[in-house]
Design a protein that fits this description.
Length: about 140
């Protein structure tokens, strides 16, 4: 076997054990909603009142989870990675230094207490269509 064939075979044999480490390194059991380059997966999740949703960044880019102020049911708590109080403050923090950043391999969670549709987005990838909704049922 020549050197190139050996290296190709050895490299292919090593790839499967490290494949999960190449991006965020999270297993699917560690989160309910994953984050790819420009999408939440799934982009629509149905849960019950009192359930906690975990978002996991298993990609290679930084993301945020940020509720739309006008996209929450009446009485629902605002949620955003970074703990911001509204959409504007979350956007301002991101734009002034990456506030609310969920880096690859990290998670963010929120417990939903109010029924209805809770719309959210990723600040740096909103223009690319990275939006989602958590539907909370009684």
């Amino acid at each position: 076997m020549d050197r190139r064939a050996y290296l190709a075979t050895a490299g292919a044999a090593l790839l499967p054990p490290v494949a999960g480490c190449l991006a965020g390194g999270l297993s699917e059991s560690e989160y309910d909603v994953g984050m790819t380059a420009n999408a939440f997966v799934p982009d629509r999740l149905e849960i019950g009142v009192g359930d906690t949703v975990v978002w996991g960044n298993n990609g290679s880019r930084s993301h945020t989870v940020t509720a739309y102020d006008g996209g929450l049911p009446d009485g629902a708590d605002f949620f955003a990675s970074g703990g911001f109080e509204n959409t504007e403050s979350a956007r301002d923090a991101w734009n002034s230094g990456g506030g609310g950043d969920i880096v690859p391999g990290e998670t963010y969670e929120h417990t939903f207490e109010t029924p209805g549709e809770h719309n959210y987005f990723c600040i740096p990838h909103e223009r690319d269509g990275m939006v989602g909704v958590v539907v909370v049922t009684e």
